[in-house]
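ERR on first pass: missing label on line 2. Operator R.T. fixed the label and resubmitted. Corrected input:
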Amino acid sequence: MSGPDDIVLRAEHVSVSYASRRPVRAVRDVSLELRRGEVLGIVGESGCGKSTLAYALTRLLRPPAELTGGTVTFCGKDGLRVELTSLAGEQLRQFRSTGMAMVFQSAMNALNPVTSIGQQFRDIFRAHDTGMDRGAMDARAGDLLEMVGIDRGRLRSFAHELSGGMRQRVIIAMALALDPEVVIMDEPTTALDVVVQQEILDEIDRLREALGFSIIFITHDLSLLLEVSDTLAVMYAGQVVEYAPTEQVAAAPAHPYTLGLLRSFPDMRGQRRELRGIPGSPPDLGERIVGCAFAARCGYVVEACRTASPVLQQLPGELRAGLPVAGWDAACHLHNLDLCPGGPPAELSGTATARPDRTPAVADGLVAGGATAGDSSGGLR
Ligand code: SF4
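pass 2 clean. output:
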């Protein structure tokens, strides 16, 4: 278990809505903790609220998105404690990048096409009042480029002169320009081919080891997070439905949605098996959701699922699949013996292999289909 000093970022009961005639509740009561040096992976289908959550954590939400509840607290290693949800204006601007930085989705298109890379680094240093003169700015920018494996001579280049992988490295270097303690990466490798993707992941890992920052890594690609993250938060319909160390989720998923995601991509080391998708699509978050938001797609529904919303809570018992359940949370009635006296089925109880070599029956609630879970853009690496 982590002590309070290990925590660098804590989100408590964060909710975000998009204002409209029918407000869309994109993030609903999400609580997370990020430890120092940790990689926290957030995974879920497109539209599950993971990017909106990232914008809420960094206070980058723009209307019509609105933070409707919750707090986000940053705990710096120098003892600095900042309640981000209470910052505004200049204080917020100063905090950004020094405490926390973000690598945006579609980062490869985020570079300014009409100014050089060097000029864009200078803009960052000036915007955050670093006090450096031009020579110092260029020296620091060159060091940052070399840190991500790019020759410092590229400071004179424009974005169109760089490959996709180089542009992504430049964006990562820019995110690290002011030594942030937390870097939020929103789909940082999605548009890259698998070879470059692996190079970038290795680079991120090396930089994290060297510089000691923490990462929130957001993607729809669970197979990728199984490799790179220490802890996993699985999001569905704006909520976290399973939250645990990655090793534990991979060994014995407790939520039917996590199980469906795990079964939707091939196991490189196991026997060949038919891949399964998750039937249906997520609910309309502009509508009131009664009961479990996953009920319409879940093959394990019990009576309570239609009427009561499951709460994210620690799994019962002390061990599961031989692993401690402390800090292993899931939002599913199957783990509540009052509502489901028989307990969860073997594949969700930690007593059976999560990704069996046998073909799961359609009664499992998982229909034959693509390699991804509701998202056609990824899942295979
Ligand atoms: Fe399925 Fe019910 Fe669990 Fe929701 S609460 S995931 S519907 S079993």
